[in-house]
Amino acid sequence: MELSVIGQNEAEHAAASGCSSGSCGSSDDQLSHLPDDIREKVHNHPCYSEDAHHYFARMHVAVAPACNIQCHYCNRKYDCANESRPGVVSELMTPDQAVKKVKAVAATIPQMTVLGIAGPGDPLANPERTFDTFRQLSEQAPDIKLCVSTNGLALPDAVEELAKHNIDHVTITINCVDPEVGAKIYPWIYWNNKRIRGAKAAKILIERQQKGLEMLVERGILVKVNSVLIPGVNDEHLKEVSRIVKAKGAFLHNVMPLIAEAEHGTFFGVMGQRSPEPEELQDLQDACAGDMNMMRHCRQCRADAVGLLGEDRGDEFTMDKIETMEIDYEAAMVKRAAIHAAIKEELDEKAAKKARLASLSVPSHNGASARKYRPVLMAVATSGGGLINQHFGHAKEFLVYEASSEGVRFISHRKVDQFCVGNDTCGEKESALSGSIRSLKGCEAVLCSKIGYEPWGDLEAAGIQPNGEHAMEPIEEAVMAVYQEMIAAGQLDEDKPLMKANA
Ligand code: CLF
Ligand code: SF4
User: Fold this and answer.
1) Are residues 386 and 249 both part of a single domain?
2) Residues 234 and 382 reside in one and the same domain
3) Can you give the residue range of the structural domain that contains 41?
4) Which UniProt keywords apply (predicted)?
């Protein structure tokens, strides 16, 4: 029996994000169509803008220990798995320590624009600690955007307070809109001093999440919805979730893969619930994208992450190191403003170039009229700045882009082990290289600043063309250039499908 608590009619609220294209919200050239006030909120937020994530950093402070629900993918020994990689433990901080740390990071990493609270429990189940941190930061470091991630149970009661502290970005983890699906994900919630179980608990959680979403949208606060893709549990259902949250005005939908390992001690991990394959994730993101702006660059960071998405500089900012730092925040703000302005200029230029590139992106072949060629996936090694600027063997992850007659779009990231730092004597290097190659399945080329002979040969043997010719070039331009080279070489003609070894 369908027990969805969200009816068709309720989903007919006008979307308030100001974006109707179904694809904006993650790329800066598309952000240009947004109203100025929303663009201002998004352009330097690394999670809300795909382009911004190459330049701007975020940090989290782990001030919120308690949680008011239980998710089957979470083990309370670790951080909140709604926006963190499961199995990671953060060191709990007091709000005062957190404020000190934020100011130290902001003075050292001027690109850090966003402070998020995402655990280790649920931030809104710890309102005093969370809002004390936000209050102090809005007074002492007003140039930093404040961001929070919640399971939504306590959200309606916190909306006024969030608005009062100028918090413009709220993430709600919504895994379902049907209590029967929810009962398979949430064994219980703690609500009005009682533990409530099963579909009844999920129904309350869903109602609170949806009410919180509506209240935030009414106040003009941008809402990102996170959903954990759990194969066989909510995979098909997430399309309905996407449609409903978009109709209610959510700005962005981030479908994240379930990470379930037995050693993490979660219910799903122990029960052998499988995680989705990259292709399943991409297919679902593409299916949802018709209704919703999708985030595809999430790194499932830890509740104390520091740095660009995908990097973690937390070790540089332990409390003992911070205690020895001299921080002149006013001077830091001047430096930060200058650097932010320079990045903004670069991003604007990049957006203009991208628009030009899009108009050139349907190549003609041998003078024939423009025709469509099959899309090609390419992996890119980058250490930030939107450039091809990393050695193949130093990459801890590759960004995957799709080139097609429509242009170039970011698809996902794939984590790998750095094989150049592996211990060659015990075969680690070899296995890291073959692991990298496996994780690049489906890609036909890999673009990097440099690459050695050994990986070059192995990649070619696996049907992936290594390419070091576009070092220090902007990613999208380089990917399109390689795509056009493939067309010119006849590699994308219909009688020459995807290289065999990589199919
Ligand atoms: Fe942190 Fe989340 Fe704010 Fe970003 S993360 S609270 S919105 S500042 Fe970003 Fe990290 Fe993904 Fe979260 S990559 S896990 S989406
Ligand atoms: Fe764990 Fe976060 Fe779920 Fe709470 S909301 S049970 S901390 S994943």
Assistant:
1) no
2) no
3) 10-322
4) 4Fe-4S, Iron, Iron-sulfur, Lyase, Metal-binding, Nitrogen fixation, S-adenosyl-L-methionine
Residues 208-225 have pLDDT tens digits of 999 999 999 999 999 999
pLDDT digits (tens, 9 = 90+) for 405-464: 888 888 888 888 776 654 455 556 667 788 888 888 889 999 999 999 888 999 999 999
One domain, residues 107 and 244: yes
This prediction's pTM: 0.81
Crossing angle (nearest 10°) for helices 237-247 and 278-289: 40
> What are the CA-CA distances from residue 241 to residues 16, 264, 413, 465 (Å)?
17, 27, 24, 39
Following DSSP, what letter does each residue of 230-281 receive, concatenated? -TTTTTTHHHHHHHHHHHTT-SEEEEEE----GGGT-HHHHHTPPPPPHHHH
Atom of ligand 1 nearest to the CA of 60: 1
Question: Quick check: is 174 in a domain?
Answer: yes
Atom of ligand 1 nearest to the CA of 295: 15
Q: CB neighbours (10 Å) of residue 431? A: 13
CA angle 117–119–122, rounded 5-degree value: 100
pLDDT in the model for residue 28: 47
The confidence score (pLDDT) of residue 163 equals 94
Q: Which residues line ligand 2 (CB under 6 A)?
A: 67, 69-71, 74, 80-82, 121-122, 151
Report the run of H or E that residue 458 belongs to, with start and end.
Answer: helix 453-461
Question: Per the structure, how many domains does the chain have?
Answer: 2
Amino acid at 255: V
Asked whether the beta carbons of 27 and 82 are under 8 A apart, the reply is no
Would you call 316 helix, strand, or coil by DSSP?
A: helix
Which residues of the chain have a pLDDT value below 70? 1-33, 84, 86-87, 291, 357-371, 419-430, 494-503
Q: 443: domain CATH number?
A: 3.30.420.130
User: What pLDDT shows up at residue 449?
Assistant: 93
Please name the residue whose Cα sits nearest to atom 6 of ligand 1.
116
Q: For residues 26 and 297, is the Cβ–Cβ distance under 8 A?
A: yes
* Beta carbons of 191 and 155 less than 8 angstroms apart: no
| pLDDT given at position 87 | 63
The answer to whether 357 and 364 have CB atoms below 8 angstroms apart is no
Statement to judge: residues 75 and 209 lie in one domain:
yes
Give the Å distance between the CA of 218 and the centre of ligand 1.
Answer: 22
Q: Which atom of ligand 1 has the smallest separation from the CA of 299?
A: 13
Q: Do 310 and 416 sit in the same domain of this protein?
A: no
Residue 68, pLDDT score: 96
Nearest-CA residue for ligand 2 atom 7 is 80
Q: Which residue, among 61, 30, 58, has the nearest Cα to 44 in the 3D structure? A: 58
**Centre of ligand 2 from the C-alpha of residue 65, in Å:** 10
Residue 162 DSSP SS3: helix
